[in-house]
Amino acid sequence: MTFTPSRTLARGLLALALGSTGGLALAGGPLGLDHRLNRDDSGIWSPGKQNTLKYGSALVVLGGALWEGSDTRLGRTFFKATDAMVMADAVALLGKSTLRRQRPRDGNDPNAWGGSPGGHSFPSGEVTHITAIVTPFIAEYHDDHPAVWALAALPLYSGVARLKNQAHWQTDVLAGMALGVATGLYAQGRDEAWSVKLLPHGFSVGLSRRF
After folding, report:
1. Is the pLDDT reported for residue 6 higher than 80?
2. How far are the Cα atoms of 109, 130, 177 from residue 184, in angstroms, in the given order?
């Protein structure tokens, strides 16, 4: 099976986000598809729910790495997901600070780049974050356990939520997915996670076998 998570995520996002509005005639941006959706911050689209996913996923991979250790397949994947998360978050933050793209809710111009220091639209940090976390697990287990593809629903949810909050443009979300996939695959392809080396004795034995 060819592993193409970026294509899968992009298709899902476009089907959900672009199919939800008829505003494509007014679209713009680098790919000609950026347009502002009607704002919805309620229910599952609330920022609080998104923060739960963002910070909860970080706790899961960090806790899973420490619990499993680096001498099991699952533990090594947790550590690599941690590496991917840290790298992706750092690159996304750099992109936001450098490109300073205006968010949809701050104006309806998808071509507003290099504006005020508060312009942090590109790329979507939330989408980058969760995509980087799930990619190593999908890459590692998609042949043995195809159900792991269900994790792709998390970046899709995050992307659509950010669009509905008018926090990001469509290309912000697509860029976040691409960045998350790239860092996730890079981390997964390494022989050993660099985060393991930061812990005493490589932390090869997890907490689950110490107690």
Report:
1. no
2. 31, 10, 10
**Beta bridge pairs of residue 28:** 34
What's the pTM value of the predicted model, to 2 decimals?
0.86
The tokens describing 152, both together, are 């792709």
What pLDDT is recorded for position 12?
57
Helix (H, G, I), strand (E, B) or coil at 108: coil
pLDDT at 7: 56
Neighbours of 118 (CB within 10 A): 9
pLDDT at 170: 96
Q: Contact, 129 vs 180, CB < 8 A?
A: yes
Mean pLDDT across the stretch 95-110? 93
CA distances from 116 to 28, 86, 188 (A): 20, 26, 36
DSSP symbols for 38-58: PP--SGGGSHHHHHHHHHHHH
Peptide bond just before 110 cis, omega within 30 deg: no
Any residues with CB less than 8 A from the CB of 6 and at least 6 apart, and which?
A: 177, 178, 181
Cα distance between residue 158 and residue 133, in whole Å: 13
% residues pLDDT > 90 (the chain): 68
